[in-house]
C-alpha cells in the first residue's frame, strides 16, 4: 500500500497544528506602545505581570523574554546548582530539562502515567535520592499533572516544585487555577500557546524571596534596592550581586500579551468546542485512543493527541502521519522523549530509561487545535483521520 493511494481533495490549504489569533485591538495595543515613551522597562510589563498574576490567582508574577528564560530563572531562584538532581518528565519540550543543565544540575527523567501521559508520581518517588532538589512537572497538553501527589512528595522530601505550565494557562486542578499551587509556575507566550506576546514567558509565585531573585536574575543580577546594597555611593549607585542575564520582555510584547489575555476564556472555550467534535467523531473507532481526562483536572487544551492502537492497523504511525500530511492536515508529534535527543544521549542517558514514554512516542499523533480554526477545519481533520484509519484498518 502507500504510493498508489490518492489522499488529496480533503482541503486545498495546509492547516497548521496551532497558530496565534491576532485582532485589530491587539494591533492597536502594540501601536500605542510604539508611539509612547518606553519600548522596554516601562509600565506595560508591570501591567502584564499584574494581569497574569490576577488571572491565575498568584501574588507575584515576573515576565521574561521567553518561557525557557523563565524556567532558567526559576531554577536559579530555587538554588539549583552542581550536584543537585532535578526530576522531570521526558514527554515534554527540551526546555523543561535544559533549564536544569543551564544551572549545571543533573536531570533525572521519571516515566509517565499511561492514562494522562503526565509524569507518574510513583516513578518520581522511585528516582528520589539524597541529591534530589526539585521536581519540574509539566501539565502535558494542558491537563494539570497529579499535583496533590507531587506536592505531597515535595513536602515529604523537602523538594521545590517548579511547574511547567506552558500548556496549561487557564487550566484548573481540583477547581483551582494553575499558577500558585507550586513554588513557582512557568507560562509561555509563544504563538502556538494559549495567548501570545510573540516570544515571552512568566513565572508566577506566592513567595517573596523567589520573586526578588527572579527580578534580579532577569536584569544581570543588578539591584538598586537600597535595602540590598552593600554600600551607597550616591543616587546613581547600583550593584551587580550575582551573574544574571538580560531576559527582559519588551513593553511592545507585554502590550500584546495583555490584550491577548482579555480573550483567554473565549480562546479556551473554542478549543474545547473542537475537542468535543474530535472526541465525538473518534469515540467509536477502536484504532484510536482518545485523550483521557482525570476527574480532578480541567484541561485548557493546548494539544489534542490521538494514540494509535497499532495492533488494529496495517500501517505504522509514520505511514498514517504522512497520509494525513498529504491531505494538508498539519499533524505533529509531541514529543520525542527529551533524552533520546543526541545531546542527551551523549550525556549518557540510554534508550529504555522511560519505557512508557517511549511507547507513547511511537503511537501518538497531534491533530490541529487552535481557537481561530473553523468548524470546517475541524471537520476536514475528522474526515481525513476517518478516511486514513479506514484505509489501514486490519
Ligand atoms: C513552549 C514550551 C516551553 C518554553 O517555551 P518558550 O518557547 O521558551 O517560550 C517550555 N515547556 C514546554 C512544555 C513548552 O511547550
TrEMBL record:
This is UDP-4-amino-4, 6-dideoxy-N-acetyl-beta-L-altrosamine transaminase. GO terms for biological process: polysaccharide biosynthetic process. The active site is at residue 193. PANTHER family: DTDP-4-AMINO-4,6-DIDEOXYGALACTOSE TRANSAMINASE, TRANSAMINASE. Belongs to the DegT/DnrJ/EryC1 family. The modification N6-(pyridoxal phosphate)lysine is found at residue 193. Its EC number is 2.6.1.92. GO terms for molecular function: pyridoxal phosphate binding; transaminase activity. Keywords: Aminotransferase, Pyridoxal phosphate, Transferase. It comes from the Bacteria. Pfam families: DegT_DnrJ_EryC1. Signal peptide: none annotated. InterPro entries: DegT/StrS_aminotransferase, PseC, PyrdxlP-dep_Trfase, PyrdxlP-dep_Trfase_major, PyrdxlP-dep_Trfase_small.
Amino acid at each position: 500500500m502507500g504510493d498508489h493511494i490518492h489522499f488529496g481533495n480533503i482541503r486545498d490549504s495546509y492547516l497548521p497544528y496551532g497558530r496565534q489569533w491576532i485582532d485589530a485591538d491587539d494591533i492597536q495595543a502594540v501601536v500605542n506602545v510604539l508611539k509612547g515613551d518606553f519600548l522596554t522597562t516601562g509600565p506595560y510589563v508591570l501591567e502584564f505581570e499584574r494581569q497574569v498574576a490576577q488571572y491565575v490567582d498568584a501574588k507575584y508574577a515576573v515576565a521574561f523574554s521567553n518561557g525557557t528564560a523563565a524556567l532558567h530563572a526559576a531554577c536559579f531562584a530555587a538554588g539549583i546548582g552542581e550536584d543537585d538532581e532535578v526530576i522531570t518528565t521526558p514527554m515534554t519540550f527540551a526546555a523543561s530539562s535544559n533549564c536544569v543543565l543551564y544551572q549545571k544540575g543533573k536531570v533525572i527523567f521519571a516515566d509517565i502515567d499511561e492514562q494522562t501521559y503526565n509524569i507518574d508520581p510513583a516513578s518520581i518517588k522511585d528516582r528520589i535520592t539524597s541529591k534530589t532538589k526539585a521536581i519540574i512537572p509539566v501539565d502535558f497538553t494542558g491537563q494539570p499533572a497529579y499535583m496533590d501527589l507531587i506536592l505531597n512528595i515535595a513536602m515529604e522530601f523537602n523538594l521545590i516544585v517548579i511547574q511547567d505550565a506552558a500548556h496549561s494557562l487557564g487550566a484548573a486542578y481540583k477547581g483551582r487555577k494553575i499558577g500558585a499551587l507550586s513554588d513557582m509556575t512557568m507560562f509561555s507566550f509563544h504563538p502556538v500557546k494559549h495567548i501570545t506576546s510573540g516570544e515571552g514567558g512568566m513565572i508566577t509565585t506566592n513567595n517573596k524571596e523567589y520573586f526578588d531573585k527572579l527580578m534580579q536574575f532577569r536584569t544581570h543580577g543588578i539591584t538598586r534596592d537600597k535595602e540590598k546594597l552593600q554600600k551607597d555611593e550616591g543616587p546613581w549607585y547600583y550593584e551587580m550581586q550575582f551573574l544574571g542575564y538580560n531576559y527582559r520582555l519588551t513593553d511592545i510584547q507585554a502590550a500584546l500579551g495583555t490584550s491577548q489575555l482579555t480573550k483567554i476564556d473565549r480562546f479556551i472555550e473554542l478549543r474545547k468546542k473542537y475537542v468535543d467534535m474530535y472526541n465525538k467523531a473518534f469515540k467509536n473507532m477502536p484504532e484510536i485512543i482518545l485523550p483521557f481526562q482525570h476527574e480532578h483536572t480541567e484541561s485548557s487544551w493546548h494539544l489534542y493527541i490521538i494514540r494509535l492502537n497499532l495492533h488494529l492497523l496495517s500501517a505504522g504511525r509514520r505511514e498514517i502521519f504522512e497520509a494525513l500530511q498529504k491531505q494538508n492536515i498539519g499533524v505533529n508529534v509531541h514529543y520525542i522523549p527529551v533524552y533520546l535527543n543526541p545531546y542527551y544521549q551523549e550525556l549518557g542517558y540510554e534508550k529504555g530509561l522511560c519505557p512508557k514514554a517511549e511507547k507513547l512516542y511511537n503511537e501518538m499523533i497531534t491533530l490541529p487545535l487552535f481557537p481561530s480554526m473553523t468548524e470546517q477545519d475541524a471537520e476536514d481533520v475528522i474526515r481525513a483521520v476517518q478516511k486514513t484509519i479506514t484505509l489501514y484498518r486490519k
